[in-house]
Write a structure and sequence with these properties.
This is Pol-like protein. It comes from Lasius niger. InterPro entries: DNA/RNA_pol_sf (IPR043502), Endo/exonu/phosph_ase_sf (IPR036691), RdDP_mobile_element (IPR052560), RNaseH-like_sf (IPR012337), RNaseH_domain (IPR002156), RNaseH_sf (IPR036397), RT_dom (IPR000477). The chain is α+β, with helices and mostly antiparallel strands and about 1100 residues long. The chain folds into seven domains: about 140 residues, Endonuclease/exonuclease/phosphatase (Deoxyribonuclease I, Chain A, 4-Layer Sandwich); about 40 residues, no CATH class; about 55 residues; about 190 residues, no CATH class; about 150 residues, 2-Layer Sandwich (Alpha-Beta Plaits), CATH 3.30.70; about 160 residues, no CATH class; about 190 residues, 2-Layer Sandwich (Nucleotidyltransferase, domain 5), CATH 3.30.420.10. The chain is about 40% helix and about 15% strand. It contains 35 helices and 35 strands. It has a seven-stranded mixed β-sheet with strand order 29-34-33-30-31-32-35, with helices on both faces. It has a six-stranded mixed β-sheet with strand order 4-5-3-2-13-12, with no helix packed on it. A hairpin with a 4-residue loop joins strand 9 and strand 10. It is globular, with a radius of gyration of 36 Å.
Length: about 1100
C-alpha cells in the first residue's frame, strides 16, 4: 500500500568545507532535510563520510593543484527522494576554464529529461549571467537565483553569484529558493531550496515502532484487560463453536484495545527526560514573526547549547558589519570572531564530554553509553551497514532469498504416530511451566508482525495468564496453531562483507515463542533423559560448551606430540546448515525417537508452510516455504542436533569426531600417517554422504585440513591431502576452530596477535571515557573491562599451552594497560600495585582458576569424552620410557589436582538437572517466606514464633535444619533436629562447601527422615532464605543445584504417598528454640558428625580454587 506525504526543505546546497570535521558539522547542522548536496569538499581519498539515515553519494575528481575534490550528495532514506520522478544533481566547474558558449549550454541542459533540479558552483562571473539567460530562453529551463550573492571573498570584500540552481519550468513553480545569511565558516553561502509537493512514499523496512511507549500506564492496561477477561474470557473458552483461531484473535484484540487505553492521551507532551527545545531559524520564511520555529534538538549533537548559539550569532553579526562597511578593522573583527567560535565550540564540546563521563555510574545502560560516545565523535556512523543501500547488496540478498525459499520446498505433512511414544510430553501445561518462562523473558527482544512484544506479555494480569495457559493447552491438544504463528518477518545481518553473505534472522510472534519455549523445555528434557544425542555433540546443551571441543582437540594433539606422531584433523563447514534442514526428514526422526504426537504436530505446523515476509530496500515479497529451521528460534538448535545425530556413527576405524552444532572436527593419530589420512578420507566421505542424504552439503572451500606435528615440514614432504566432493584439500598453516587459531605446532603466535588486535578497540573505548583528572566511574569502567577485554582474555586461556615469554608478556600488557586506564594510574605504576588496586589476579592465576573450574565440571559427567583422553595423557607423562617433548600442560595439571576430589563430586551420565522425571522438575513444593519477615530481634522470638506458627506446630511433625562452616577447619557440618529433641542428626562434609549447599543438604536429610516417619503433615523450618527461594523458583537451568532438584523429587514422591511437606523460612538467631538447637548441633557436627551421605556439586569447588586468588590479592 502506498502512502503520500509533503516533502519540505527538499534540498540544501552546502558551502565548500575546508576539512572533514567541518563538513560533518555542516551536514549535521542541516537537520530535517531530505537531500543535502555539497561541492568542493576537498576530502582525502581515505576519508569516509557517513550520515545516519542518509544514503551518501560521492564522486571524487582531481582538482586544481593536484588535490582531490569531491561532490557529495546525501539523500534521506526515510523519505526516499528517488521515489520522486525528479533528478537532482550537483556540479562543480573549475574557474580556470573558458566561458561556455551558447551551444555548450544547450548541450549541457539537453541531457536532462523530465523534472530535474541542477545546482552547483559554475564559477561564472557576473557578466556571464545575461548570456546564460539568453541561451536558455528557448529551453524548458529556469534559473532559480534571485541576484543574491552566493560567494563572498573576504580579502577584497567582493561578492558574486558563482553558485547557480536550475530547474525545469513545471518544477520551478513549486520551488522556493533562498540564500542563507551566514557563511558557516566558508566563502560560499548555503542555499536552501524548498519544494512543496505531494509525492508517493512506499513502505520502507525501517525501525519498527512498539505498541507502547515510556508513558504507558501499565496499571490501566492490567485492570482493563482483567475486566475484559472476566467478562468474555471464560465464555470464549466454553463456546464449543469457536475454533482456536477465533479465540486467539479475540485474545489479541483485547490486548490491543486495552493497550490503547493505557497509552498517554497527548503523545506530543514533553517528558522530563526529553531534551530541551531549541529555536532554529527558517531561512525560507519571509515573515519576521515566523522566522523562528521550534524543533527538537538533533540527537547527533548532544553538546550543543545556548552558548554555542550565542557564539555563532556573534560571528554572524561581525560578518554583517563587515559586509556593510568593508573596512579592515571589521574584517579583523570578523576573523577574531571566527577563531573565537572555533575555539569556543571545541572547549564546550570537551567540557560536555567530561561531564558526560563523570556522570556515568556502574549501573549506567551500556547501550546509552555507546550511542552517546558515537554522537560525541565527528562521525555519524550508525549500526546501519554502509552497504545496505548498494545495488550489489540487494542483488546478493535476492540470490540468497531464491536459494532459501525455492519453489520445490513445499511438501505434504506426515501422519502422526498412534503408539510407541512417551505420553508425558503430551500432558497439559501447568502454571509452574508458564511462570518459569514468563519470569525469564528478555523484554528488549523484537516482536513479530503482530507487534505484541515481551514487555506487553510480562504485564499481563493473573487472569490473562490463566486464560493464556488454557489457550495454549487447547492449541496443544487440538494440534492446530493460529495463522499468525506461521508468519515470519525476515531481515538480513551482514555476515561476510567481502563475499556479501548475510544471515537471515526471523522474527516470529512472541506469543508463539513462549509456547515454543514450553515445548522446548519438555523436548530438551526428553532428549537428555533418554540419552539420545551423541556424546560428541556439545552444541546448545546443558553443562556443555565450546571449551569441551577445544579441550578435547588440544589434549589429543598433546598425546600425539608425546608419542612423536602427527595428528591429521579435518574441520568441516556445512553450507547454510539451519536453512537447509528438511522437515519431511526431521519429522520421521522424531517419530522414531518416540516423541509424542502433540509435540510433533506443533513442530510440523511451525515448520511446514511458513509464510516468510522479506523486506529490504526494494525487496518486499512474501514466500511460502517448508524448508529450513527459523534462525533465532528456541527449538531450532535442539532440532538441528537431532537432525544430525547420526553423523558420529559414520566415522570409520578409530577416527574421533567432536561437534558444536554445525562446527565439526574429525581427527585421529595411530603413528602411520598414510593410514590415518586414508581413514580420515573414508570418514569424510561417509559424513559427506550422510549429510547429502538429509539435504546438507559440505563446503569444499571452507573445509580446512591441518596436520598437527612438532616438525611440520617433515610431514609436508609426504604431500598429505584430503578429498571432498571431487576437490583437493591441502594442509593449512593455521586453522580457526570455535574462536581459537590453531597452528600445526601449537605455537599460538597467530592467536595472540589476533587477540591483541581485538583488544585495541575496547582499550580505545576505555581511554575516551576517562582522563587523568576526570572520567567515568571506575566501577563502570571495570564493568566495561570485564565485558570487552577480560572476556576475550579468559576464553580458552588454559588451552594456550606452551606460550613463549614474549607472548605471555604481550597478553599481560593488555591487562595492565586496561586496568591502568580504569584506575587512572600512570604508566610508571608498578604492575603488582595495579592488580592489587583493581582486585584482579594475574593472567596465569586466572587461567589456573578457570581450568580447575572446568575440570570440576567435567567430573560431574561420568561419560565425558575428555576423561579417558586426559587419563591417557597422564599415563604417558608418568611413563619413564617416554621422552617429555611436550612440557607441562595446565589442563593436565588441573586434572591431576581435581582427581583427588572426584569421589566427592556428584557425577551422572546425564546432566544433573535432567537426572529426574520431568514431573519432579516442574514441581513446586509448598513454601512460606512471608511470615519470617514479621520477626523482630528486639522481642521474644520464641513467643512470636509460637503465635505465628501455632497451627503448623499443632497439626504437623516439625523439623529444624541448619548448616555451619568454620574457615579454620577442614570440615563443615549440618544437622536436623526435631522440635521435641528426640531426633538429632549430625553430618559433616568438606570444609570448602558453601553454606547454601550445607543448608540444602540439611533440608534433604530432613526429607529423607520424613520418608521413615508416619504421618500426613510435616513442616521443615530453615533459616536459609536462599534455599527456600530456590525451591519456590520454577526456573530450570543447568546451574540449578542437584540438591534442590533432589528435594523437589523426594517431596513430590511424598505427596503422592499422602505426606504433605511444607518448607518455612525463619530468621536465624532470633531466640527460636528449635533453630538454636539445630545451630548448636551443626557446629558440633564439624568435629563429631557422621560423614555426609550426599556428594557436593562441582560449583562448590570454586571456593577452593579461589583461595590462591584471595591469597594473591
Amino acid at each position: 500500500m502506498e502512502d503520500s506525504g509533503i516533502i519540505e526543505d527538499f534540498l540544501v546546497k552546502l558551502s565548500a568545507a575546508p576539512d572533514k570535521d567541518t563538513l560533518w558539522m555542516r551536514l549535521n547542522k542541516t537537520i530535517d532535510l531530505h537531500i543535502k548536496n555539497c561541492g568542493e569538499t576537498w576530502l582525502e581519498p581515505q576519508d569516509n563520510i557517513r550520515l545516519k539515515g542518509f544514503d551518501v553519494i560521492r564522486n571524487d575528481r582531481i582538482g586544481r593543484r593536484g588535490e582531490v575534490s569531491s561532490s557529495l550528495s546525501a539523500r534521506d532514506l526515510n523519505t526516499p527522494s528517488w521515489r520522486i520522478s525528479t533528478m537532482d544533481t550537483v556540479f562543480w566547474r573549475p574557474p580556470d576554464l573558458p566561458n561556455l558558449s551558447i551551444q555548450q549550454w544547450l548541450n549541457f541542459f539537453s541531457q536532462f529529461q523530465g523534472d530535474f533540479l541542477v545546482g552547483g558552483d559554475f564559477n561564472l562571473p557576473n557578466n556571464c549571467i545575461v548570456p546564460l539567460l539568453e541561451s536558455i530562453e528557448d529551453l524548458d529551463v529556469c534559473l532559480l537565483n534571485d541576484n543574491s550573492p552566493t560567494y563572498f571573498e573576504m580579502e577584497r570584500n567582493y561578492s558574486s553569484s558563482l553558485d547557480l540552481s536550475f530547474a525545469n519550468s513545471s518544477l520551478c513553480l513549486k520551488i522556493d529558493w533562498v540564500v542563507e545569511d551566514d557563511l558557516w565558516g566558508s566563502d560560499h553561502t548555503p542555499i536552501w531550496i524548498n519544494m512543496n509537493a505531494r509525492v508517493p512514499l512506499k513502505n520502507r523496512f525501517s525501525k519498527r515502532e512498539r505498541l507502547h511507549s515510556s508513558g504507558t500506564d501499565w496499571g490501566i492496561f492490567r485492570s482493563s484487560l482483567e475486566d475484559r477477561i472476566e467478562d468474555v474470557g471464560e465464555a470464549l473458552l466454553r463456546d464449543g463453536n469457536l475454533d482456536v483461531q477465533s479465540i486467539y484473535s479475540s485474545f489479541t484484540s483485547m490486548i490491543f484495545d486495552c493497550l490503547s487505553f493505557a497509552l498517554p492521551k497527548n503523545n506530543t507532551s514533553r517528558t522530563l527526560s526529553s531534551p530541551r527545545p531549541v529555536y532554529y531559524r527558517n531561512p525560507l520564511s519571509s515573515s519576521s514573526q515566523s522566522s523562528y520555529y521550534l524543533k527538537k534538538r538533533s540527537s547527533h549533537c548532544p553538546w550543543w547549547s545556548e552558548e554555542c548559539d550565542k557564539l555563532v550569532a556573534g560571528r554572524k553579526i561581525a560578518l554583517d558589519n563587515f559586509k556593510k562597511s568593508g573596512t579592515r578593522d571589521d574584517f579583523l573583527l570578523y576573523k577574531r570572531e571566527c577563531a573565537k567560535v572555533r575555539i569556543g565550540l571545541k572547549n564546550i564540546k570537551k567540557e560536555n564530554f567530561r561531564r558526560f563521563c563523570e556522570s556515568l555510574r556502574k549501573d549506567s545502560n551500556p547501550t546509552y553509553i555507546w550511542k552517546k560516545v558515537k554522537s560525541f565523535q565527528n562521525y555519524l556512523n550508525s549500526s546501519d551497514s554502509p552497504n545496505k543501500y548498494n545495488q550489489a547488496v540487494v542483488d546478493a540478498i535476492k540470490n540468497q532469498i531464491s536459494s532459501l525459499f525455492p519453489p520445490w520446498a513445499r511438501c505434504a505433512q506426515i501422519p502422526l504416530p498412534v503408539n510407541g511414544f512417551d505420553h508425558i510430553l503430551d500432558l497439559p501445561f501447568v502454571v509452574e511451566e508458564l511462570n518459569a518462562v514468563l519470569n525469564n523473558l528478555k523484554l528488549k527482544s523484537s516482536p513479530g508482525l503482530d507487534n505484541i512484544d515481551y514487555k506487553i506479555i510480562s504485564n499481563l494480569p493473573n487472569s490473562a495468564r490463566s486464560f493464556l495457559l488454557k489457550l495454549y493447552n487447547r492449541i496443544f491438544a487440538n494440534q492446530i496453531i493460529p495463522l499468525e504463528w506461521t508468519q515470519y518477518l525476515v531481515f538480513f545481518i551482514l555476515k561476510d562483507a567481502e563475499a556479501l553473505k548475510f544471515r537471515p534472522i526471523s522474527l516470529a510472534s512472541c506469543l508463539f515463542k513462549i509456547m515454543e519455549r514450553l515445548i522446548a523445555n519438555r523436548l530438551d528434557w526428553f532428549v537428555e533423559y533418554k540419552e539420545i544425542l551423541p556424546r560428541s555433540q556439545f552444541g546448545f546443551r546443558k553443562n556443555k560448551s565450546c571449551i569441551d571441543n577445544l579441550a578435547i582437540l588440544h589434549s589429543e594433539i598433546l598425546i600425539a606430540f608425546k608419542k612423536e606422531r602427527a595428528l591429521p584433523a579435518a574441520f568441516l563447514d556445512i553450507k547454510s546448515a539451519y536453512d537447509n534442514v528438511l522437515p519431511n526428514i526431521l519429522i520421521p526422526k522424531l517419530i522414531d525417537l518416540g516423541v509424542s504426537p502433540n509435540v510433533i504436530a506443533f513442530i510440523q505446523n511451525a515448520t511446514y508452510t511458513r509464510q516468510v515476509h522479506c523486506r529490504f530496500e526494494d525487496i518486499d515479497e512474501i514466500f511460502l516455504t517448508s524448508k529450513g529451521l527459523p534462525q533465532r528460534s528456541v527449538l531450532s538448535p535442539l532440532l538441528y542436533n537431532i537432525y544430525v545425530s547420526e553423523i558420529e556413527s559414520k566415522c570409520v576405524g578409530d577416527c574421533k569426531i567432536i561437534q558444536f552444532a554445525d562446527d565439526i572436527a574429525i581427527f585421529w593419530a595411530t603413528g602411520n600417517l598414510r593410514q590415518d589420512i586414508n581413514q580420515l578420507n573414508l570418514s569424510l566421505e561417509n559424513v559427506s554422504e550422510e549429510l547429502s542424504s538429509i539435504g546438507l552439503d559440505l563446503s569444499t572451500e571452507k573445509t580446512k585440513f591441518c596436520l598437527f606435528k612438532r616438525s611440520f615440514r617433515s610431514c609436508m614432504e609426504r604431500n598429505p591431502q584430503l578429498f571432498l566432493n571431487g576437490g583437493v584439500i591441502r594442509p593449512s598453516p593455521k586453522v580457526k576452530f570455535l574462536g581459537l587459531l590453531f597452528s600445526p605446532n601449537l605455537s599460538w603466535g597467530a592467536h595472540v596477535d589476533n587477540l591483541w588486535r581485538k583488544c585495541q578497540c575496547p582499550l580505545k573505548i576505555l581511554s575516551c571515557l576517562t582522563h587523568t583528572w576526570w572520567g567515568a566511574d571506575p566501577h563502570l569502567l571495570k564493568i566495561i573491562y570485564n565485558a570487552l577485554v577480560k572476556s576475550r582474555l579468559d576464553y580458552g586461556c588454559f588451552i594456550l599451552n606452551g606460550l613463549s615469554r614474549n607472548q605471555r608478556i604481550k597478553l599481560d600488557r593488555i591487562q595492565y594497560k586496561a586496568l591502568r586506564i580504569v584506575l587512572g594510574l600512570r604508566k610508571s605504576t608498578p604492575t603488582n600495585f595495579i592488580l592489587a588496586e583493581a582486585k584482579e589476579p594475574p593472567l596465569f592465576l586466572r587461567s589456573k582458576f578457570l581450568c580447575s573450574n572446568y575440570i570440576s565440571r567435567v567430573y560431574s559427567q561420568s561419560d565425558h569424552p575428555i576423561i579417558p583422553t586426559l587419563n591417557s595423557l597422564q599415563n604417558l607423562l608418568e611413563n619413564p620410557t617416554q621422552v617429555d617433548c611436550v612440557g607441562s600442560s595446565l589442563i593436565l595439571d588441573s586434572y591431576i589436582e581435581v582427581s583427588y576430589l572426584s569421589l566427592f563430586i556428584e557425577s551422572k551420565s546425564r546432566p544433573l538437572c535432567y537426572n529426574f522425571p520431568y514431573s519432579s522438575l516442574i514441581f513446586s513444593p509448598e513454601t512460606n517466606l512471608e511470615d519470617g519477615i514479621k520477626f523482630d530481634r528486639s522481642v521474644n522470638g520464641q513467643r512470636l514464633f509460637c503465635d505465628i506458627f501455632e497451627e503448623e506446630r499443632a497439626s504437623s511433625y516439625c523439623l529444624y535444619t541448619d548448616g555451619s562452616r568454620n574457615d579454620e577447619s577442614d570440615h563443615s557440618g549440618f544437622s536436623v533436629v526435631s522440635e521435641d529433641g528426640s531426633l538429632v542428626r549430625k553430618f559433616r562434609s568438606l570444609g570448602f562447601v558453601s553454606i547454601f549447599t550445607l543448608e540444602a543438604m540439611a533440608i534433604l536429610c530432613a526429607v529423607k527422615e520424613i520418608e521413615r516417619v508416619e504421618g500426613e503433615r510435616f513442616t521443615i523450618f530453615s533459616d536459609s532464605k536462599s534455599v527456600i527461594v530456590a525451591l519456590a523458583n520454577p526456573k530450570l537451568s543447568g546451574r540449578t543445584s542437584f540438591l534442590i532438584l533432589e528435594i523437589k523429587h523426594c517431596t513430590a514422591d511424598l505427596l503422592k504417598a499422602g505426606k504433605r511437606v511444607k518448607f518455612i523460612w525463619i530468621p536465624s538467631h532470633c531466640g527460636i528454640v528449635g533453630n538454636e538447637r539445630a545451630d548448636v548441633a551443626a557446629k558440633e557436627a564439624i568435629c563429631s558428625g557422621t560423614d555426609s551421605p550426599f556428594n557436593v556439586s562441582s560449583r562448590d569447588l570454586r571456593i577452593k580454587w579461589k583461595k590462591p586468588l584471595f591469597c594473591f590479592l
